[in-house]
């Protein structure tokens, strides 16, 4: 997500180099070994990080049992952050039982079953690896980590851990996007040939907008490419059911310096990125992401063009899906139809309100928590898996490599 202010226990991130093989988007990051012993008590949850994403995930843990009573019960045990007074204030606001200022202490506790990692990206690998080795169930907010090597290490660690491991690409729980995936799988728009992906925001369009960890490569890993591009690439993989294998790309930093806490500071990541993506089956996708697109607040637009129809989705109108089908259509009435995705027959909607009532961005996190708890209970494959996160990171890394080579077509390794 676009967490600009997340504050969590910080240390240097561990970079590992273990190699693992990416699998399809339905592969589970779970161990072949015996799962952790389950008890009748609610599963104790610790969220690491308490700002933007920490608050979004906390809201999900607070609501999941009310709207998904069929999943295992979860207990909001501990909220973790390095600033004791600020994390206590957040815990009081969000409904946590207790707090901690060192995530390592939390991993040693028997009353913590689930570790939910919502830190800045440079801490994901270290915290997640330790949680997996402690045998915890682990949910990680995207991206999985800041490098392909770190992602490979986490895939391998998840395979060796008795816990369930899942990556938090929450947009997989937008009902309209889940419906789009169903329609693609049913062949409703034929064979997909081309895709347009864009994710545009404007929170950095003002050159005087202050520095944040999101603009430092050492903490963020990359700029908008990793922040928003990861969502777009994951949706492409999710909707198509296949991975990007080759890319050509270009990155641009429009504002090279911004006011920091100690004066002007250099921006070391990208403000915008463009890429052409190719899959093994021949699908070609265009990708554009930006955090300086004036007037666009949170506009992830996905357009899928098939041989017999098309689909269009805009996150700023997330309860709608536009479907066009051509064969046999009456020319007088042919064209795009807007589906209001608010019926109990639509994915995820039946857990919420009566038919016709819209859902919001926050609901996706609650549905994500429910899916995670259900996977813990059943052992079913998770969505998204750590393997999925690795596949996305390979695409992002290839786009960066392509940019450094003047836009040359580059293989992703997927």
Number of domains: 2
The general outline is globular
Kindly estimate the percentage of residues that lie in beta strands according to DSSP. 15-25%
Q: Please give the radius of gyration in angstroms.
A: 21 Å
Low-confidence stretches: 1-37
C-alpha termini separation: 23 Å
The CATH architecture of the largest domain can be named as 2-Layer Sandwich
Structural class: alpha/beta
> What is the helix content?
25-40%
| Total number of beta strands | 18
Identify the CATH class of the largest domain.
Answer: Alpha Beta
**Helix-strand pattern:** EEHEHEHEHEHEHEHHHEEEEEEEEEHHE
- Side by side, the strands of the main sheet go 17-16-15-14-8-13-12-9-18
CATH fold call of the largest domain? Dihydrodipicolinate Reductase, domain 2
Supply the CATH superfamily name of the largest domain: Dihydrodipicolinate Reductase, domain 2
Strand and helix layout:
Elements: E1 29-30, E2 43-48, H1 52-67, E3 74-80, H2 84-94, E4 98-100, H3 103-107, E5 114-117, H4 124-133, E6 137-141, H5 148-160, E7 164-168, H6 175-185, E8 192-200, H7 217-220, H8 224-227, H9 229-240, E9 244-252, E10 257-260, E11 263-266, E12 272-279, E13 284-290, E14 299-306, E15 309-314, E16 320-325, E17 337-340, H10 363-378, H11 386-404, E18 410-411
């Amino acid at each position: 997500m676009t967490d600009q202010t997340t504050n969590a226990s910080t240390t240097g991130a561990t970079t590992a180099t273990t190699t693992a093989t990416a699998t399809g988007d339905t592969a589970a990051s779970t161990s072949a070994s015996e799962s952790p012993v389950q008890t009748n008590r609610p599963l104790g949850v610790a969220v690491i990080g308490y700002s933007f994403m920490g608050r979004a995930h906390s809201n999900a843990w607070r609501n999941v049992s009310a709207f998904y009573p069929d999943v295992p019960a979860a207990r909001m045990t501990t909220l973790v952050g390095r600033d004791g007074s600020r994390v206590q204030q957040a815990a009081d606001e969000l409904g946590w039982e207790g707090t901690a200022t060192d995530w390592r202490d939390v991993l040693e506790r028997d009353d913590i079953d689930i570790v939910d990692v919502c830190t800045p990206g440079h801490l994901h690998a270290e915290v997640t690896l330790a949680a997996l080795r402690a045998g915890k169930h682990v949910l990680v907010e995207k991206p999985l980590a800041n490098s392909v090597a770190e992602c490979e290490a986490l895939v391998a660690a998840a395979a060796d851990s008795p816990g369930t491991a899942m990556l938090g690409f929450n947009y997989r729980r937008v009902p309209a996007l889940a419906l789009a995936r169903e329609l693609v799988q049913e062949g409703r728009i034929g064979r997909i040939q081309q895709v347009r992906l864009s994710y545009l925001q404007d929170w950095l369009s003002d050159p005087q907008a202050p520095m944040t960890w999101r603009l430092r490569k050492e903490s963020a890993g990359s700029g908008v490419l990793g922040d928003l591009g990861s969502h777009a690439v994951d949706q492409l993989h999710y909707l198509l059911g296949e991975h990007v294998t080759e890319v050509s790309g270009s990155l641009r930093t429009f504002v090279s310096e911004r006011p920091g806490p100690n004066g002007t500071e250099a921006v070391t990541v990208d403000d915008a990125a463009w890429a052409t993506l190719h899959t093994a089956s021949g699908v070609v996708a265009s990708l554009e992401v930006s955090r300086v697109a004036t007037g666009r607040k949170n506009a992830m637009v996905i357009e899928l063009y098939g041989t017999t129809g098309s689909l269009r989705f805009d996150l700023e109108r997330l309860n709608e899906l536009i479907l066009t089908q051509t064969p046999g259509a009456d020319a007088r009435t042919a064209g795009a139809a807007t589906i209001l995705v608010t019926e109990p027959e639509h994915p995820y909607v039946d857990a919420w309100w009566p038919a016709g009532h819209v859902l919001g961005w926050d609901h996706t996190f609650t549905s994500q928590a429910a899916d995670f708890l259900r996977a813990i209970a059943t052992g079913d494959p998770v969505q998204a898996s750590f393997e999925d996160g690795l596949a996305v990171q390979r695409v992002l890394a290839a786009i960066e490599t392509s940019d450094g080579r003047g836009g040359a077509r580059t293989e992703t390794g997927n």
